Amino acid sequence: MQNWPIVLGDKIPADSALNGKKVWLGDINRAVAHPELFLSEAKGHASVYSAPVATAPAAAAGPKRIVAVTACPTGVAHTFMAAEAIETEAKKRGWWVKVETRGSVGAGNAITPEEVAEADLVIVAADIEVDLAKFAVSPCTVRLPAWR
Question: Which positions fall inside the PTS EIIB type-2 domain (predicted)?
Answer without folding.
Answer: 66-148
